[in-house]
Amino acid sequence: MQELLIVTTGGTIDKVYFDDKSDFQVGAPQIGRILEELGVAFRFSVIPILRKDSLHLTDDDRELIRATIAAQPARHVLITHGTDSMVDTARALASIGDRTIVLTGALNPARFRGSDAEFNIGTAVGAVQSLPPGVYIAMNGRIWDPAAVRKNVVANRFEAVG
Questions:
Q1: Checking phi first, is residue 106 left (phi over 0); if not, alpha (psi -120 to 50) or beta?
Q2: Domain named L-asparaginase N-terminal: which ranges (predicted)?
Q3: Binding-site residues
Q4: Is residue 155 one of the residues assigned to a domain?
Q5: Which of 18, 129, 140, 141 has its CA 20 to 30 A from that of 160?
């Protein structure tokens, strides 16, 4: 891997809690800060293209994600994404060939103590470097095939379909 391309789309991983509004809003991408603090031994670039909760992503947004990746020379791509529609986006990217693309996110904001963000990012970084070309999801300590996984909203985790 010469350089890891990171595309950020928003989601819980980047959410910030505003006390005065008593709600969450998607803030600035956290992954660059996380990787720098961890002292990773590879080059990466971050392209922030969206700041949306994944429930609000549209087909046009997915096309923007696809076009952004297709326009870059990088063969290793990590996407931070909200968990609710991550599978849909992964499936929409299946037509991109010759690249290893891994989507990850968090069930709790990266800024929160006990967040799964760093663990999921670490899993995704390992996956994007070692898997053959294709599209994958890295969540809950596992690498998933987007065609065979779903988010179990009640249990708040990803699980195999069937």
A1: beta
A2: 4-152
A3: 54, 83-84
A4: yes
A5: 129
